[in-house]
Design a protein that fits this description.
N-acetyltransferase; 7 strands; acyltransferase activity, transferring groups other than amino-acyl groups
């Protein structure tokens, strides 16, 4: 399947964004966003500004299958949010999107040294995507990700270094650096 990425444009894409984010459950996010709050954030420019860029993931027939939001773009370590619509999950869009956004960020922003992302511990599909795309597990925060039902899940952080992306290698953190252990 071919996919493409189209940059979010406010106000033209605002109602589509609201519909996309509020139209289904996001099991590994903090529930369904509020429509009015999402609309206000879009109108206020929070999906496309100096700090943030948002892109639609489009199928070969132009359908919106997902959304990529790049954040902290003025920092040397941006983060991202990825959402793939339920109907399109399990088809490789997550891997394609993370590969694309990694290349986009490192090419578009030469000062970026690393890219970070995080997911819930039980989001096995996203964790596999991170590993396939050369990201390395760097953090494990216990009970740090609350879900709408009140359950707290562990939060897992991944990152890729520019030098690893350029060389095609993976540098693993030194997990055994505790003194006296």
């Amino acid at each position: 399947m071919q996919i493409d990425f189209s940059r979010f444009s406010e106000p033209a894409d605002t109602e589509g964004l609201v519909e996309f984010l509020t139209g289904e459950e996001w099991p590994f996010h903090a529930g369904i966003p509020d429509a009015e709050a999402t609309r206000k954030r879009a109108v206020d420019g929070l999906y496309d500004n100096e700090e943030s860029r948002t892109f639609w993931i489009l199928t070969d027939d132009g359908r919106r299958a997902g959304l990529v939001r790049l954040q902290d773009l003025t920092d040397d370590t941006p983060m991202f949010d990825l959402r793939v619509a339920k109907a399109w999950r399990g088809r490789g869009l997550g891997t394609a999107a993370v590969s694309w956004l990694t290349s986009y960020l490192f090419k578009e922003f030469p000062e970026i040294t690393r890219i970070e992302g995080s997911t819930r511990q039980d989001n096995r599909a996203m964790r596999a995507v991170f590993r396939k795309c050369g990201y390395v597990k760097e953090s494990h925060y216990r009970e740090a990700w609350p879900s709408p039902d009140g359950t707290c899940h562990d939060s897992i952080g991944y990152a890729i270094l520019r030098r690893d992306w350029v060389s095609g290698t993976v540098t693993v953190p030194d997990w055994n650096d505790e003194p006296g252990v």
